[in-house]
From TrEMBL:
Residues 10-236 form the NAD-dependent epimerase/dehydratase domain. It comes from Scylla paramamosain. Keywords: Isomerase, NADP, Oxidoreductase. Pathway: Nucleotide-sugar biosynthesis; GDP-L-fucose biosynthesis via de novo pathway; GDP-L-fucose from GDP-alpha-D-mannose: step 2/2. This is GDP-L-fucose synthase. PANTHER family: GDP-L-FUCOSE SYNTHASE (PTHR43238:SF1). The keyword Isomerase applies. GO terms for molecular function: GDP-L-fucose synthase activity; isomerase activity. Belongs to the NAD(P)-dependent epimerase/dehydratase family. Fucose synthase subfamily.
Length: 320
């Protein structure tokens, strides 16, 4: 129950994707009295339209919004459509935050990405470094649109007192992801590739050298943290939601774990003609740990096991 004894109505945009589904699963396990959760998909409203955005807010009257909706894609799609990523995401974010302000929403939590951080930086990156330089050139349209959410959160707070904040997860994986081998997230793309190589008796080809290093967060862990942010986190400035620095793994190590988990016995090759993207984006979770020192993350092998099981069981209907 929120303040003044009124019902807390949490509306999740982009509720049918990887993170939205994870939040739905975790809310069902920890449903609290006085809370109502609504999960929107693109079928409910086109958030690029101000009229449709207003209409869906007027229909549900949320007190809280978790804003996940975005135009997303992998490295190669980003490189091809930088302008579309910039324009469409700016439109969605502007509409959601402006309507939230107009409707008196108490709190908006937007989901950003570590790609918003400067390309040239010191590591580990933390929440204070977001605006210290331009992002990586490969996907700057998407990165800058996401980065602008932090600017909007600040100016809405300064001018109107709105409580708009954001979270910055590292690489997410889990059930309900987009398993597209060309366009999905790296880990789920690898799972699909191994699945196909196994089925077709072909080599499993990893794009790039396998050397880049990443921190991976299981979608259900991210969901638990985003629910906590919705209920408890009161700052406007972003908070990085990430596993610890020592849990960073290389793409090669990741591929080997997937091969092992899926019991793939075929040939593994690396297509070094494909771009690697940034070598690393090590993020510090010191701020998160100051709030939740005892939070336990799902070990990556366990998360991969559950993700592989979900993908195998739901192969026909999974996004790919």
């Amino acid at each position: 129950m929120s303040e003044e004894g009124k019902e807390m109505v949490v509306m999740v945009t982009g509720g049918s994707g990887l993170v939205g589904n994870a939040i739905r699963i975790m809310v069902e396990k920890d449903q609290r009295p006085g809370e109502k959760w609504i999960f929107l998909s693109s079928k409910d409203a086109n958030l690029m339209s101000m009229d449709e955005t207003k209409a869906v807010f007027e229909k549900h009257h949320p007190t809280h919004v978790i804003h996940l909706a975005a135009m997303v894609g992998g490295l190669f799609r980003n490189m091809k459509y930088n302008c579309d990523f910039w324009r469409n995401n700016m439109q969605i974010n502007t509409n959601v935050l402006e309507v939230s302000h107009q409707m008196g929403v108490k709190k908006v939590i937007s989901c950003l990405s570590t790609c918003i951080f400067p390309d040239k930086t010191t590591y580990p990156i933390d929440e204070t470094m977001v605006h210290n330089g331009p992002p990586h050139s490969s996907n700057y349209g998407y990165s800058m649109a996401k980065r602008m959410i932090d600017v909007m959160n600040r100016v809405y707070h300064e001018q109107y007192g709105c409580k708009f904040t954001s979270v910055i997860p590292t690489n997410i994986y889990g059930p309900y992801d987009n398993y597209n081998v060309e366009d999905g997230h790296v880990l789920t793309g690898l799972i699909h590739k191994v699945y196909l190589a196994k089925k077709n008796g072909t080599p499993f080809t990893v794009w790039g050298t396998g050397k880049p290093r990443r921190q991976f967060i299981y979608s259900l862990d991210l969901a638990r943290l985003m629910i906590w942010v919705t209920r408890e986190y009161e700052e406007i400035s972003p908070i990085i939601l990430s596993v610890d620095e020592e849990d960073e793994v290389s793409i090669k190590e990741l591929a080997e774990m997937v091969v092992e988990e899926m019991d793939f016995k075929g040939e593994v090759t690396y297509d070094t003609s494909k771009a690697d993207g940034q070598f690393k984006k090590t993020a510090s979770n010191t701020k998160l740990r100051s709030y939740l020192p005892d939070f336990k993350f799902t070990p990556i092998r366990q998360g991969i096991k559950e993700t592989v099981e979900w993908f195998t069981a739901n192969y026909e209907t999974a996004r790919k």
